[in-house]
Amino acid sequence: MTLTPSPTTAAPPTARLRTLVDGIRAAVDRGLPPEATAWLVADVLRPHLAARDLVTPAQCEGDPDRYRQHVLHAEPDGMFSLVALVWLPGQETPIHDHVSWCVTGVHRGEEHERRYRLVPGGTGGAGARLEAAGDLVSPAGTVTAFAPPGDIHKVRNGSAGTAVSLHVYGADITRLGSSVRRVYRLPADR
Ligand SMILES: [Fe+2]
């Protein structure tokens, strides 16, 4: 199973991408709480998702070994960042949660998500496990938004073709290295 995306690549934006970034900045600058901000950003992202000029062919290139991350924008003040994730068939994330609010939008293909609930164990956490809390299939055009806590999930490309999705995070993940707060290795529902 792939544990981390392949190394990031910085990529020059398309004109549409610059428009999208301006819209995200306006939504974030309203200063609303994390989940409300995420849904505002989702509304900004949704109408751009189907556009052919949203990302360049180079920004849709995958990696045969693991899902690939292309950094599209990192806001200088660190308030948000935008990446394209490219998944070849069968590639997936580990079970993880996030450092900040997150918005995802499927540009091409289909993503399969499993959400989990952490079931605490006894003394010292013995017996803790992850219980499946829901499955979501997201075809192109689908937007989701969430904010920690309660954001444990894994994502995989369950389709036969390449999947490309845009992800907006409420942090500069180029400084942090990743949007992942924690990878969970507890027993989990498959
Ligand atoms: Fe995630």
State the major sheet. 6 strands, mixed
Average pLDDT level:
91
Bound molecule kinds, no repeats: fe (ii) ion
Low-confidence stretches: none
Q: What is the helix/strand order?
A: EHHEEEEEEEEEHE
The CATH architecture category equals Sandwich
- Number of helical stretches of at least 4 residues: 3
Q: How is the CATH topology named?
A: Jelly Rolls
Domain count: 1
Structural class: alpha+beta
Rg computed from alpha carbons, rounded to a whole number of angstroms: 16 Å
CATH domain class:
Mainly Beta
How far the N terminus sits from the C terminus, by CA atoms, comes to 13 Å
**How many E strands?**
11
CATH-defined superfamily: Jelly Rolls
Strand order of the largest sheet: 1-2-3-10-5-8
Strand content: 35-45%
Structure overview:
Fe cation binds at residues 96, 98, 153. GO terms for molecular function: ferrous iron binding; oxidoreductase activity, acting on single donors with incorporation of molecular oxygen, incorporation of two atoms of oxygen. It comes from Streptomyces solincola. InterPro entries: CDO_1 (IPR010300), RmlC-like_jellyroll (IPR014710), RmlC_Cupin_sf (IPR011051). Belongs to the cysteine dioxygenase family. The protein is an alpha+beta fold and 190 residues long. The chain has a single domain (6-177), classed as Jelly Rolls (Sandwich). It is built from 3 helices and 11 strands. It has helices at 15-28, 34-45, 173-176, and strands at 6-10, 68-74, 81-87, 96-98, 102-108, 110-119, 129-139, 143-146, 153-156, 163-169, 180-183. The strands form 3 sheets. The chain has a 6-stranded mixed sheet with strand order 1-2-3-10-5-8, covered by helices on one side. β2 and β3 form a beta hairpin. α1 packs antiparallel against α2 (34-45). It binds fe (ii) ion. Residues 96, 98, 153, 155 line the site of fe (ii) ion.
